[in-house]
Amino acid sequence: MPLPSLLGVFAHPDDEALFSGGVLARHAAQGARTAVVTATWAPDTRRGAELAEALRILGAGEPRMLGYADAGVPSSAPGSPRLCEAPLDEAVGRLVAHIRQFRPEIVVTHDAYGGLTGHPDHVHTHRVTTLAVQAAGLERLYPDAGAPWRPSALYLATHPHSALGALQELARASKGMNTVPDERVTATVDVSPWLKQKWAAVLAHRTEVERGAAPGLLAGFPEDVRGRILSTEWYIRQDPVFTGPAQTELTA
């Protein structure tokens, strides 16, 4: 029996592979529909092309992009505002259209901290996604964005305090390390069977490897260290997404 359909919503090209590449690959391998919406960068950029390759590796279809600029790279979407400066209602409406078009059972996005680094685009993507998941099911909101659709569950990609041991090499190499109490985590997923596929998707983001961002840092670690960092994914189920029965689970 296939796993539930899954839509990932992430801030930048490479976030989908780093935070949820294993779950995306796992769902696709077992026959589920999967897709990713990326909040920043334009399709006709180098990073847009790298995203397309990463999604192909993960089995997540073609890029779906909101079209806003990265907070630190205005040229990432020429003529468009930075994500954090765009009208909130507009950004939510764009994402609602993707949710209603794809009709996922599960939506996955950044946690409220914006992940380990707390990047402002990650934090804002969390805000936009939580609002859009609610709005997508309400027929009087964004009536031009398609027929209403209610995802069954919203999961936030996160890291528990107990993962700090596995992340110590990454912590030494980076500035931020935002984790949550272990009891907040509702799904711990062993993605080691899909680690090779996940890592290939991370490496597809060659720009980030070359400039020494997270993919580049990981590429410099020994394989066993990299495996400890990437072979488990943690999620917080954010309830209630809606009142009433809707019990689709992201299983370990």
What do these coordinates show?
This protein is of the alpha/beta class and 252 residues long. It is built from nine helices and seven strands, in the order βαβαβαβαβαβααααβ. A seven-stranded mixed sheet has the order 3-2-1-4-5-7-6, with helices on both faces. α2 (46-58) links the parallel β2 (34-40) and β3 (64-68). 46% of the residues are buried. The model has no long low-confidence stretch (mean pLDDT 93).
Concise overview:
With 252 residues, the protein is of the alpha/beta class.
Q: What strand line-up does the widest sheet have?
A: 3-2-1-4-5-7-6
Helix content: 25-40%
Q: What Rg, in angstroms, do the CA atoms define?
A: 17 Å
How is the biggest beta sheet arranged? 7 strands, mixed
What structural class do helix, strand and pairing data support? alpha/beta
Distance between the amino and carboxyl termini: 16 Å
Q: Work out the helix count.
A: 9
β-strand amount: 15-25%
**Which parts are unreliable, with pLDDT below 50 for 5 consecutive residues or more?**
none
Q: How does the overall form come out from the CA principal axes?
A: globular
Helices and strands, in order, run as EHEHEHEHEHEHHHHE
β-strand number: 7
Q: Give the overall pLDDT as a whole number.
A: 93
Oligomer: single chain
